[in-house]
Amino acid sequence: IDPRHAPPPLAAFEGRISARAYEDLVFGVALYRAAAALCDYGLAPTRALAGHLDRVVGTGRSFVIRDTAEPDGRTARTGDGIRLFLYAPQSRTVGATDPAGAALLHVLRDEPRVRLTTAGFAVLDDAFAPFADRITRHGPAADWEEALRDSDLNLVPTDGSEADACLAPTGWLAAARFGIPTLAGDTPALRETLRDGVEIRLASAEAGWTTALRELVAAPDRRAELGEAAVQRLRTVHAPEAAAEACRTMIKALRNRSTR
């Protein structure tokens, strides 16, 4: 809803979309903002995003209804490899100059058991070429969650943008369904409901990513603790029942306002 923050420049897509498709993205932001301006209240999955909506909607007030998911069974693991998973819903290049990319290169060099699977619009740069035999690339496949289900650790890199800072924890939610731990870039939206070192591991800058990834790769018990805590958090804060209660609270607040 804010053209200052979305979409990213066309060059960031590195040729993966046409100029016409990019124009549609730009126009879409304008349409969403215009639609929001016609509304009295906003509705968003994170308080960080709601803060932007507050400045557009008529009353200056937005409600937060968090995304939900329900636990699902995890496929039994076989083999002694350590399977890392990285999904990018938007175009993202991962390389040696990227904090998450640098951390991945470190563990791929130091730990031969590590395997990496990417999905969505994640692009690995040439620095990953020496490890091509240990990398599986799914691209924007519709069934990417099936690849995630077989993983030991979910990775959610961020780029430090305001758009990333407002995103709902969809990557964490997808992994938590299967009891898979997540290492993610540190954002305000993630800290709204998740505790660093309890239900998620957060990292910023190359040193933080490298330290956290090395520790989690080397400690299966720690990964299991994070995964189990993620499931428990999913069953409470991000459960459908929690969203329903938030909706009831919102409706009550709106009714009380209309009767004044």
Outline the structure in words.
Strands 5-4-3-6-7-8 form a six-stranded parallel β-sheet, sandwiched between helices. The chain has a two-stranded parallel sheet with strand order 1-2. The mean pLDDT is 91. The longest helix has 19 residues, at 19-37. It is globular, with a radius of gyration of 20 Å. The chain has helices spanning 19-37, 47-54, 99-110, 144-149, 162-166, 170-176, 188-191, 205-218, 220-234, 240-258; strands at residues 41-44, 61-64, 82-94, 114-124, 135-137, 153-156, 182-185, 201-203. α3 (99-110) packs parallel to α8 (205-218). It contains ten helices and eight strands. The chain is α/β, with parallel strands linked by helices and 260 residues long.
Pick out its properties.
single chain; 260 residues; alpha/beta; six-stranded parallel sheet; two-stranded parallel ribbon; 10 helices; 8 strands; 42% helix; globular
Quick summary:
The protein is built from ten helices and eight strands. The protein is of the alpha/beta class and 260 residues long.
Which sequence of strands runs across the widest sheet? 5-4-3-6-7-8
Q: Catalogue the unreliable spans.
A: none
Helix content: 40-55%
Count of discrete alpha- or pi-helical segments spanning 4 or more residues: 10
Spatial extent as radius of gyration: 20 Å
> The biggest beta sheet, please?
6 strands, parallel
Task: State the secondary-structure class.
Answer: alpha/beta
